[in-house]
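tool=predict chain=A
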Amino acid sequence: MKIPNFEATECERVRSYLDSGLNYGILAETNHEVLKHLESCTQCARVREDRARVKAQLKRAVLNERAPEALSDRIGAIFGARAALH
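tool=predict ok
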């Protein structure tokens, strides 16, 4: 007989919320539940820290890059055309 590992299931569920929490925010009730789990689960807390660190590094890398001039011009033209419609 296989004994279910409810803790692993809880970790999987909490980890599914981590990216949403870092990027978009989650419902207050869910956030409270996630934070409570992170207080008692060092593995999930480490995963959250790793994901936050990777997100910050990616953001820094992207902010240091400039879009090619042709792309910037095309984007400006698209948004300029849309602004003229409103």
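The helical segments are 6-23, 28-40, 42-63, 69-85. The chain has a mean pLDDT of 81.
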